[in-house]
């Protein structure tokens, strides 16, 4: 039940993002601009893919030239559908990544506004635009490589009877949905100083929530104009999910807590015999350091009277048993 509940929570985060942009229509329109630009480019590409899918199928199946005309045409028609379907799925998976790269200034501002409505915006990890765009492209290409690593085997499994029509579409939606979440949570996680490997680790630790959020978006992105309309809400929902569920323990100001190290860094080197602050075994104390409320040898602890001094030649009271 916990897995199902987390999956449903992921879907609810998108609905929370949708609710936020519905209350702020100006920001929804603001987020539509890059999504519309990328949508037009993708629509043109899919148009040409659909137009020449038959030619691509014929080029890819020279072994069918000797078949009977009816079987050959039917087979190549099905291959053409698979090619176009693969292009459609690839477009749905990469749409968010390409749109985020094209519209990074737009969505960065939108994501910040969403976080402002929940409190203080994390600071201290800002990167100049001329550095952030190449980094975003690099991260998106790496994510795309992971997507292809999973989707290419699934593509061939799609030709297996029964499994290809039942199990494979579900696995494809889950893989695509997870990596959609990877892309959409990048802005909010980078704002907290989380590099790519740590972002993947956070999402793997919250796999059910990430899948619930991403699978719903993947299905919406397959609907014509669905990706354009849903993109601002997806960015808003991802910002809420990162803040509330994925990284709630990080300091909201982006500062590092006392005794903690910034993400991705290592503790400073300590001199021999010294321990980092807060890391000495419980109940023990570093060398040459007195435990609390215990003064070093020869000194009197604070708030404690010094021992009574005995004049020379006299025996301190109580030094010998009574009667001696």
From TrEMBL:
It holds the Pfam family EI24. It is a multi-pass membrane protein. The keyword Membrane applies. The chain crosses the membrane at residues 27-49, 77-103, 141-164, 170-189, 210-242. Residues 275-287 have a biased composition (Low complexity). It is found in: Membrane. One of its GO terms (cellular component) is plasma membrane. Keywords: Amino-acid biosynthesis, Cell inner membrane, Cell membrane, Membrane, Sulfate transport, Transmembrane, Transmembrane helix, Transport. It comes from the Bacteria. One of its GO terms (molecular function) is high-affinity sulfate:proton symporter activity. Residues 260-274, 288-324 have a biased composition (Pro residues). Residues 253-324 are annotated as: Disordered. InterPro entries: CysZ-like, CysZ/EI24. Its main location: membrane. GO terms for biological process: cysteine biosynthetic process; sulfate assimilation. This is CysZ protein. It comes from Planobispora takensis.
